[in-house]
From TrEMBL:
Domain of life: Eukaryota
PROSITE patterns: UBIQUITIN_2
The protein, known as: Ubiquitin-like domain-containing protein
InterPro entries named in the record: Ubiquitin-like_dom (IPR000626), Ubiquitin-like_domsf (IPR029071)
Domain Ubiquitin-like: 11-82
Organism: Jaapia argillacea MUCL 33604
């Protein structure tokens, strides 16, 4: 994705990590814009560009600087120091819809493992500390009476609702090296270090995002109400940017980090979780404009079920902005 430097432009640099180790990066070009360097580090080591703080001879280097590597003094065999400043991220509005074939009592448990913790839940229920498989986490449990029309009554509070709602805040953890394709994300989603790069996401002009989302969410199995709620919730977060990069997590990866247990067991559970970030004009060239993604395959969606069928369905959607 980065232009190959000519022999005359080629440089190699050294970057000292907080652990004390030094990594060699190259071949690079001294004519590259500065933001190329943070993206090279992200793709090579997995440290998100937004977490990186680079210094050269004691002076902070900003990847938003419009200059080049050469213009800030980076040359062949320069030694830069890298510090890592984690950013807390919020998983916003995962909401859970329940569509039973008849009125029934249902228990809904959400557990968070590893790098995040509950910030808000509705209806309000106690947040319990949990320890599963040696990993610390948290757990919430709703007991509801669910009806065919999608409405529910939460038994503890008596509230009548159309969905269950939770939000979570990431917990700072060191980033680990990560895969470059959504289909390679086999382990639990890491909320503190979400993986969104030019190699695993689609880039869209902001004006085309709503139509793209409506089409994609319909293909994934969300009904009109859920699609409309999803798009209108996230639209204000898209609008400050000219371009948006986005991806949808594999259900297996998302569920490993946030297991959802429904009793009695549904016939079908669909969990849709989007990562996105705003991309400025200077970074647009990092994305392959011709590449397309089969989100049904990546998310792991089976055959589309007729909404009128007598099946017990659970649908959840949510997302996270990667700054």
């Amino acid at each position: 994705m980065f232009p190959t430097p000519s022999a005359e432009e080629t440089i190699f640099i050294f970057i000292k990590y907080p652990s004390g180790t030094t990594h060699t990066f190259g071949p690079l070009s001294y004519t590259w814009p500065l933001y190329f360097l943070t993206h090279v580090i992200e793709q090579h080591e997995g440290t998100p560009a937004s977490w990186q703080r680079l210094t050269l001879d004691g002076k902070r280097i900003l990847d938003t600087d419009p200059g080049t590597l050469a213009s800030v003094g980076i040359k062949n065999h320069s030694v830069l120091e890298l510090s890592i400043v984690p950013i807390k991220r919020r998983a916003k509005k995962p909401v859970i819809y329940i569509y039973p074939p008849k009125e029934m009592e249902v228990s809904v448990e959400v557990e968070l493992k590893g790098a995040w913790e509950f910030e808000t839940v509705y209806p309000v229920v106690p947040v319990e500390k949990a320890l599963t498989g040696g990993r610390k986490g948290e757990r919430i449990l709703w007991e509801v009476v669910a009806r065919r029309d999608g409405t529910m009554t939460e038994k503890g509070t008596g509230l009548e609702i159309s969905y269950l709602y939770w939000e979570a805040l990431s917990i700072d953890t060191p980033p680990a090296s990560r895969p470059t394709s959504p289909t390679e994300i086999l382990d639990a989603f890491d909320a503190a270090n979400p993986n969104l790069t030019s190699s695993n996401s689609i880039l869209l002009h902001t004006s085309s995002v709503p139509a793209y989302l409506d089409k994609t969410l319909k293909e994934l199995g969300l009904n009109v109400e859920a699609r409309t709620s999803f798009i209108t919730f996230w639209l204000p977060s898209f609008q400050p940017h000219t371009h948006i990069a986005l991806l949808f997590l594999p259900q297996s990866s998302y569920s490993a980090a946030a297991p959802l247990t429904i009793t009695p067991k549904p016939d079908e559970v669909l969990r849709v979780f989007m990562l996105f970030k705003g991309i400025n004009e200077q970074n647009v060239s990092l994305w392959d404009a011709q590449r397309t993604w089969d989100w049904r395959e990546i998310v792991g969606v089976g055959s589309v079920v007729d909404g009128s069928a007598e099946r017990f369905r659970v649908v959840e959607w949510g997302g996270m902005e990667v700054s």
